[in-house]
Design a protein that fits this description.
three-stranded antiparallel sheet, 1 helix, 21 strands
Length: 438
């Protein structure tokens, strides 16, 4: 069936629009003024958005509004990484903080090799206290603000001081792999002989020191990197155990200690979970109007449909009978203006907001007003069959020469008073009041 304003609907549907709270002001905010096209909007340059709302575009600003009327809010502002708008417009991080996943966190050196000063404190790599005990590369460990050799059997100058392996004072006797059967075989004060875990000899000389994460057996107990597991969390402390956020466990991977299993704040998604760990679930997602999350997260409306009250509706009424409000505008069947002059079923036509009978000889109440055929005022003057017309609410004979009782009153041709004065034989004869053809 045809649809009024078809071209306008296609144009509007080509620009999906996120409906936000209306305002009776102008620039960049949908206004309360209803519209069917841009011509209905009072302000110059205004657009008519889906849903019949006027919107005058203005440059996008970080204010939680769709200023440029393009269906996106605050585009171009990195709320996940912008320290001036961290997580929300106008939320600025304090000095020394960075914006990570929409949350302000204390800036720290991110890598202890490469020469970059990531946290901007003027100290790079091992010179930055953040790097104490961290890896400064393969076989290298930061300690006391400097690089130190931590791999003493690879033939490499890992800390860049010109000395390799046992040439470097950083490497105690154990790291050089000197063989022994007992501690007395080892040079140096405090050295011990670490025997193979499977038993037997020879062992390896080792001078105990505090165990660190470097792939070596620093404390000479026969097991490298056997550091105690501790709870760790790198996200903002106030988000710990809020929403999905949880602590992890510190694990040594042979070169550095990492926090395994932790979950820190991330950008909020529509998934019935508090991803950004702020105590709110799915904030920013309007399940009442969002066509991609209509009624529930992930429930997307079909292309061209819209979401109202958490229910997907067609862009316009698709049938003018059946009692269903397909487009969700509160108007059903013939009451919806798009149904004007459209069929409302067999023998029924929508007109002026109501159903009207168009078939007046089938014995059916086609427009559901409890009146059939000629008894329905809609049928007045309409055919009620061959040789019959509805006159008021009665059937009237119109063919007075076919020998048939066309109006069903038991009288044929001139015998029916409807025929008085009507042609009865096709040669000039007319029905008389007495019921004869003369």
């Amino acid at each position: 069936m045809s649809r009024p304003l078809g071209a306008l609907r296609v144009l509007l549907l080509a620009v999906p629009v996120l409906l936000i709270a209306c305002s009776d002001t102008s620039e960049g905010v949908p206004q309360a003024t209803g519209c069917a096209s841009a011509a209905d909007c009072a302000e110059p340059g205004a657009l008519c958005l889906v849903g019949g709302v006027c919107c005058t575009p203005s440059p996008e600003a970080c204010d939680g509004k769709d200023n440029d009327c393009d269906g996106q809010v605050d585009e171009g502002y990195g709320l996940q990484t912008d320290a001036q708008n961290c997580g929300a417009c106008g939320h600025a991080c304090a000095g020394g903080e960075a914006c990570v996943a929409g949350a302000c966190v204390v800036r720290r050196e991110q890598a202890c090799t490469g020469g970059a000063d990531e946290d901007g404190d003027g100290l790079a790599d091992c010179a930055d206290p953040d790097c104490q005990g961290a890896s400064c590369g393969e076989g290298c460990l930061c300690d006391a603000g400097a690089k130190h050799e931590s791999a003493c059997r690879n033939g490499q100058d890992d800390d860049g001081d010109g000395l390799k392996d046992c040439e470097d004072p950083d490497c105690p006797a154990t790291h050089c792999g000197e063989q022994c059967g007992e501690a007395a075989d080892c040079p140096g004060s405090g050295a011990v002989c670490v025997l193979p875990q499977g038993g037997g000899t020879p062992g390896t000389c080792c001078t105990p020191s505090a165990e660190v994460c470097d792939g070596e057996d620093n404390d000479c107990d026969g097991t490298p990197d056997n550091l105690p597991a501790t709870s760790c969390y790198s996200g903002p402390q106030e988000t710990l155990d809020v929403g999905v956020c949880k602590a992890g466990t510190s694990v040594c991977n042979g070169t550095a200690t990492v926090c395994s299993g932790e979950v820190v704040p991330s950008a909020e998604r529509c998934n019935q979970a508090d991803d950004d760990c702020d105590g709110q679930v799915d904030e920013g997602f309007d399940l009442q109007t969002d066509v991609n999350n209509c009624g529930s997260c992930g429930h997307a409306c079909a292309a061209g449909d819209h979401c109202s009250g958490g229910v997907c509706y067609a862009a316009t009424e698709t049938a003018c009978f059946g009692g269903v409000d397909e487009d969700g505008n509160g108007l059903i069947d013939c009451a919806d203006p798009v149904c004007n002059n459209q069929s409302c079923g067999a023998g029924c036509l929508c007109s002026a907001g109501a159903a009207h009978e168009t078939q007046c000889s089938d014995g059916s109440d086609n427009d559901q007003d409890a009146k059939k055929d000629c008894l329905d005022p809609d049928c007045s003057g309409q055919s009620c069959g061959t040789g019959c017309v509805c006159a008021g609410t009665a059937r009237k004979e119109t063919n007075c020469a076919d020998g048939a009782d066309n109006d069903g009153d038991g009288k044929r041709d001139c015998a029916d008073s409807d025929c008085t004065g009507q042609s009865c034989n096709g040669t000039g004869g007319h029905c008389q009041a007495a019921g004869t053809c003369n």
